Amino acid sequence: MMENDIQEVLFSEEQLKQRVQEIARQIDEDYAGQEIMLISVLRGSFVFMADLCRAIHLNCMVDFMAVSSYKNGTTSSGQVQITKDLTEDITGRHIIVVEDILDSGNTLHYLLNLLEHRNPASIRLCTLLDKPSRRKVPVEVHYSGFTIPDAFVVGYGLDYAERYRNLPYIGILKPYVYGGQ
Ligand code: IMP
Ligand code: MG
User: Fold this and answer.
1) Which of 22, 31, 29 lies closest to 96 in space, CA to CA?
2) How many C-beta neighbours within 10 Å does residue 5 have?
3) What is the pLDDT of residue 95?
4) Is the CB of 155 under 6 A from ligand 1?
5) Cβ(157) to ligand 1 under 6 A?
6) Fold topology of 14-151
7) pLDDT at 70
C-alpha cells in the first residue's frame, strides 16, 4: 500500500479543503466583476486545480500547460521544457497560473516570463505549496496555500517518479523510497 511509504502527513484532506476555500474566496474578492483564466501546470497541479476551480464563483476559463524540469529525481535539473502548450489565446485575459509547488523557482520563473510575452491583461501566480528555503531564482507569489520546510512531499497531485499523485492528503515520503536511509 502506498500509505506505508509516508513518514508523516503534513496536510490532511480537511486542511487542504479549507485552505483551498480560503484561496478561492480571496480570488473571488480580488477579481470581482471580472473573468479569469486559470492555467494549470501539469501534471502536479491537476488535483489542486480541480478543487480550486470548483470553489471559485467568478466566470472562469481553464487551460493546461505541461512542462518538465524533473527527471524522476527529487532535485530540479534547472532546464525547463514545454511539453504541452496552451490551447487558448491569453491576450488581454486575467491569468492565474496554478502550480502545485514552488521549489527552486526555475519552472515558474521561465513559465511566467514566457506567458507575460503573450500580453495577458494581468498575470498572477497561485501555488498550493511554497518551499522558500530552496529558491534559486526570484518568483513573485500572489496566492500561496502553505509554506513548507525543505522536505520532499507527495500526494494531492504531487508525485515521486509518477507515483503517489492519488493520495488524498500531502505527506512526507520515507527517504528509503528514493534511496535514502
Ligand atoms: P522548481 O522549478 O524547482 O520550482 O520545481 C517545481 C516543480 O518541481 C514542481 O512543479 C513539482 O513538479 C516539482 N517538485 C518540487 N518539489 C517537490 C516535492 O517536494 N514533491 C514533488 N514534486 C516536487
Ligand atoms: Mg509541477
Assistant:
1) 31
2) 17
3) 98
4) no
5) no
6) Rossmann fold (3.40.50)
7) 57
The residue extents of the domains of the chain are 14-151
Ligand 1 atom closest to 99 (CA)? 10
pTM above 0.90, yes or no: yes
| Residue nearest to ligand 1 atom 3, measured at CA | 104
Please calculate the CA angle 94-95-97 and round it to the nearest 5 degrees: 160
Catalytic residue among 28, 63, 85, 103: 103
8 pairs with which residues across the strands? 172
pLDDT along the chain (181 residues), means of 10: 93 98 98 98 96 98 88 62 95 98 93 96 98 95 96 96 97 86 58
pLDDT at 142: 98
- Match 504541452 to its residue by C-alpha cell: 84
What's the pLDDT score for residue 131? 97
